[in-house]
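[RESIDUES AND BACKBONE]
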Amino acid sequence: MTRTLRAVLAIARADLRERTRQYPFLWALGFVCWLGWLTSEGTLRVQLGDFRGRLDAAWIGGSLAVTASNLLALVGFWLVRGTIERDRVTGVGQVLATTPLTRGAYLVGKWLSHVAYFGLLLALLALAAVAMTLRNAEAGGLDLVALWLPMALVALPALAFVAGLVVAFEVLPGLRGGFGNVAWFFAWGMLSVASMQLGPVADFSGLALTRDSMRAAIRAEHGVDEPSFTLGGGPRRATRTFAYGGLDWSAERVGLRLSWIGLGALVALAATPFFDRFDPARRRFRVRGPAAAGEGVSVPAVVVVRSAAEAHDLPPATRGWSAGPALVRSELLRVLRGRRAWWWLATAAVFVASFTGADPRGPGALALLWPVLVWSRLGAPDAAVEPLLRACPHPVLRPLLARFVAGVVVGLPFVAARSLGSGPEGWLVAAATLLFPPALAVALGAVAGSPKAFEATWTALWYLALQTPSLDFLGATTTPNPGPFLAAVPVLLLLAGAVRARRQG
């Protein structure tokens, strides 16, 4: 038992050290600072109808805790995901497979590393809460218990449960690759709805628990039962305040919240039968096609010509800009080759739905989400191809434009089907829908070095565009706004070119 515990702690410590020494950790810290700033300025706020709590330690701590347990849980999944695949691609996993380390101990160690990573982000948010209290407090003083206890008992258990889901998503067949990044957005939405509506048993985020305590405070002071609850922004701000004393932490409530930490560990352990322990012979579900390659991991690529005869058999090099169509074709083949028959059948079904669906929010809207995994692979660098491109003329501009054009070609059938019959007023929407996704994919792929950033960002943008007119470049609402997204296309391409040039220079 002691040996297993030491192994778990060693895995967690090594993994945490590895991740905190990389640039994505700085992005995570920046996101947390941005989240705290939005909350401090009132752009992101907790509001119940026309009521908000008076700004004191209890209200600021409770608001930041539910913000972290929901929004940080959404983004945090993508921030910590990918460590098991990294161990597989870099060869660390194969080294660990030669040791007595069990599958369960490895997965629990990864879960503990995720929890520690989330703990560091929460610690930064806790320091931001102190600054917010000193700056914005309307009542009371700096009560650290009231300020920090909700983060420890509301936010941390929620993130520990999410950490267990991260481990399961990295191990379960079908969720290991890009599909898991897209599926998490919808899984998070369903978990949030369940947290609000199904009572304490399903309230992983503590949102319903905090909401009910705030409603009770309004009822006690104003005699009003306020049914609405908002976590986010919007133009309408609360004009009435109430005194919020925080949650009454009974032993039952503390135990219920801490149980989510244990449940997160159990979820990670439950995925053990599906974990191959980096043994190819154990992989009952093999990854084919582009998903089989490591994401954002640099490995050497070697082209071998065995004889002079083979060298003469090679096709002549294409010179000048006439090489453009060949590069576009190569990019399309790279991401489409190896895809299974069911994927092509599903693509045909989505195309038919987009062609026949009159409702822009109906089945046809799925057409603009379906190519996300293809776009993301076009944007992210290929570990085997990048070294070869550096030896070619114009190693930055040509591949960049080829990938962008290939992304346009991928989206063209779906956009054309949705745009038929829309009239001249729909062409601006069609142009934004056609050009913005591949430009965003190329830019985020160059910056992040992985498809994960685009898969997460595009899924969220797609959903927001269906709900918010100011963000609607898909033509899903009555007042779409494609202009800013069209204007962003050249900016994104310039960003991608600058990043690629810096890495190759």
